[in-house]
Amino acid sequence: MDTGRATCKNWFKTCQCQATSNTCGSPGSCDSNNCGGTFNMDTGTATCKNWFAGCGCQATAATCGNAQPCDGNGCNGTYDAWTNTPRCRNKFAGCVCQPVASTCGAKGSCDDGGCGGTYDARTNTARCRNNYAGCECYPTANTCGSKGSCDDGGCGGTYDAWSNTARCRANYAGCECNPTSNTCGYPASCEGSGCAGTYDLWTNLAHCRGNYYGCTCLPSQAMCGAQQPYANNSCNGHIDNVVTGAASCKSAYQGCPCTPNSSTPQACGTIQNCDFAGCDGYGLDWVSPDGSVGTCTAGAHRGCSCCRVNGIRCRQFYDNGGTVGGTCYILCYTGNADVVDGWTYVGNLGACFSF
User: For residues 161 and 169, is the Cβ–Cβ distance under 8 A?
Assistant: First the structure.
């Protein structure tokens, strides 16, 4: 023990011999008892180079030197369990090494093993911030943190099918997010996919109240409820058919049937051809100088503007100098030389109307 050399104690007494595992006993620290231990580069094992030369010793920080990559020189480094310290498991065993992707091993939960995982900013990659620092991990609700907007940070959030839960689909994938109008996508039926849509009070807007909560949806007549007077609750009802008297809301609750009265205006809709659906329209040259615009005199849209047909030009004539409300006549231009100026009387319209 005073020299650290191995010598024969039986035959060849005092002669120096080569140490073996039996001679060395249990490895001690490479820094103790004048061992002077260092690693053998060919084997990656630490042995004493001074006293107890050739005996294996336990590596220390001094023995290991500066940390090297965990995948270099046969180190095969992995993390110590529940720590942020990777060490070589093959050559240079026990030495701390610099972690690389292969050091991390199979991804685990961001909540397990003291990982403390969070997302990299504006990405879909979560990494451990505590133990196993830098290793990718599987995100959980804890990884996501506080819910943000589905539009922010590249989240690209959309709703889960048939649910009221919106999640990020790009960055922070799987994390719940606060929906916006963009999250909703194109409006769908208020009656589909558990939307359970209803109208917003006194408006023409309908929103989901069940799944996809708050998203605009397409209302149906089933949502209209009890028929209301045409002037109530911003309905702004108009008569759609002067024959049947059917009327519907044109502002709030648009399309819902309403109850008209004698003051309810008529809804003409998109102008149609003067021979459409019994319109029996005449062109009026004071409305359209070329006679291309007329007015329906019959059918469900009586009084509504229409497009002239068959090349006949017509005009309204007022017997009291053109005052609205006076008796109106229809004069049509036929080109017949037997009548004055080629205009022929074809019938009364009754009370005059304006456009």
Answer: no
Q: Provide DSSP, 181-236.
A: HHHH-S--BTTSTT---EEPTTSS-EE-SBTBTT-B-B--GGGS-S-EETTGGG--
pLDDT in tens, the chain (355 residues): 666 677 788 888 888 888 787 888 889 999 999 999 999 988 999 999 999 988 999 999 999 989 999 999 999 999 998 888 999 999 999 999 998 888 888 899 999 999 999 999 888 899 999 999 989 999 888 898 888 999 999 999 999 988 989 999 999 988 999 998 889 888 888 988 999 998 888 777 889 999 999 898 888 878 888 889 999 988 988 988 887 888 988 888 888 899 999 888 888 766 666 777 778 776 554 444 455 567 787 777 777 777 664 444 444 444 444 443 444 444 444 444 444 444 444 443 333 333 2
Distance from the first to the final alpha carbon of the chain: 121
Q: Which amino acid is at 158?
A: T
- Helix, strand, coil share of the chain (percent; to 5): 10, 25, 60
Asked if 355 contacts 294 with a C-beta cutoff of 8 angstroms, the reply is: no
3-class DSSP assignment, residue 78: strand
The predicted model scores a pTM of 0.46
